[in-house]
Amino acid sequence: MSQKSKSFSPINRPAIRNYFIFNREISIKSKRNSSKNIES
């Protein structure tokens, strides 16, 4: 069990970090798009 979680966590952490970075980029893009819509 412990061996499985050890092998799982190094793979899992970067995926979670990439997921949050991906979400942040999407939210920034959507904010830019909404501000463009307000300006126009």
UniProtKB/TrEMBL annotation:
Organism: Rhodnius prolixus
Full protein name: Uncharacterized protein
